[in-house]
Amino acid sequence: MSTSSSDDPFAQVRSRFAPRWEPRVRCGEGWAPLLVELDRAIAAVSPATEYIHIKEKHAQLIVLVSPPANAEVRELIDAAAAKAQSTCENCGAAGVPHEKFGWVHVLCPRCAARDGYSPK
Ligand SMILES: [Zn+2]
User: What is the Å distance from ligand 1's center to 40 Cα?
Assistant: First the structure.
């Protein structure tokens, strides 16, 4: 299992997971740019911050860090999560929450149509 493939858009983000936590980013690659941007911003204000979980749940971006986020880091995470709400999780284009069989994802119209999702 490679952890440093240059094809992996999450490589930089995964390199800053806390030890003993599986460095897996559980969301689509469409959110990679905003996570990379978030990672840079967090590194600038709080270099000791490491990730515990990064995932998508019910179309929300969830980022848990260690030590617990201070106000500055919290604000950065909230801003990234807000941005994710209008970013296609598949391709990064502008999107809105879509639903299929109770699964909710933020998708652009093209990805939603391809995968059979309907606007929520
Ligand atoms: Zn898309």
Answer: 24
